[in-house]
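Troubleshooting: if your tokenizer reports a length mismatch, compare your output against this known-good record of 376 residues.
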Amino acid sequence: MPINRRVLTPVAAAPVILAVLCYFFWASIIQSDNIKGSKHVLQDAKTIPLPAYGPESLEFDLKGEGPYVSVTDGRILQWRGEELGWVEFAHTSPHRDNCSMHEVVPSCGRPLGLSFDRKTGDLYICDGYFGLMKVGPEGGLAELLLDEVDENKIMFANQGDIDEEEDVIYFTDSSDTYHFGEVFYVSMCGRKEGRVIKYNMKTKEAKVIADNLLLPNGLALSKDGSFVVTCESSLNSCRRIWVKGPKSGTNEIFATLPGGPDNIRRTPTGDFWVAIHSKDSLFSRLCQFHPWIGRFFMKVMKMETAIHLTNGGKPHGVVVKLSGETGEILEILEDSEGSAVKYASEAYETKDGKLWIGSVFWPAVWVLDTSVYDSK
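Known-good structure output:
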């Protein structure tokens, strides 16, 4: 039966109408939201350039020296101060011949979350290709500790935190399908295929304590060790998973955030800093509205384009401080123009009153004195 021309005409016109709407309203569609109560202070942070890209996670050793950062080419670098600069501390793969400072090469690995064991000085590394790894206090080539749990491959080890009393590390495996290089596909596909894993550092046993999570990204342990908080980037939220006490084995939403969260770190006082890799926007809400919409964008755009659009066409930096007990938002710090901080991936507060910020893509870290925002 031939298609009625009256039906065909509107159908054929739909792409044209959509294209016209996008042409006139595209800037509004991708523009990032304004965040109420945000303090615009991150542009005042000091920039410390790196000889590599993507210092995704930061950590300090037993002596308080550092930061140590995980970078795109598979290495962990240590900051030795203005005079010595950055020096190589460790790497996660012996294959170093074709590693790139700008792009991830799977054979070189991609170290992400870093956690020092304060008792031994060992550095535990979540690698987005290999799994959970460890390197001794002297650095060098890291050893693989765990690359599967329950006969399922660890595809995307992301961030962990250590309970030193129990000698265990909790960490996220963000996807059972994609590695780090496809992180935005994980975010857009809408599949709940992430999990949180508990690894006993003495017995070498591992078990899944939570699954069916939508891109569990960062993870941090509470001050009393009773729960861990993991950030589900695709849901703009953090989830509390109880690991001790009468609620052990249960979980609930801990905080709702003004954008997609990346890593989370506990502060010296027991609160949490969460880095927001991109603020919310009409485009991001559209992608999250239904899984098929996100999967459509996966098919029609490159990864670089997805990153550009989810950042509103302009890299920016946002970090959020949460109450360690209630998840209430205590502070929001921002560089909305990206004049200094871009693609914030982690915020790490040290005991000397400094806030260090890493980036998943940019070749720099930033440091801000906490008195800058406390006075505003």
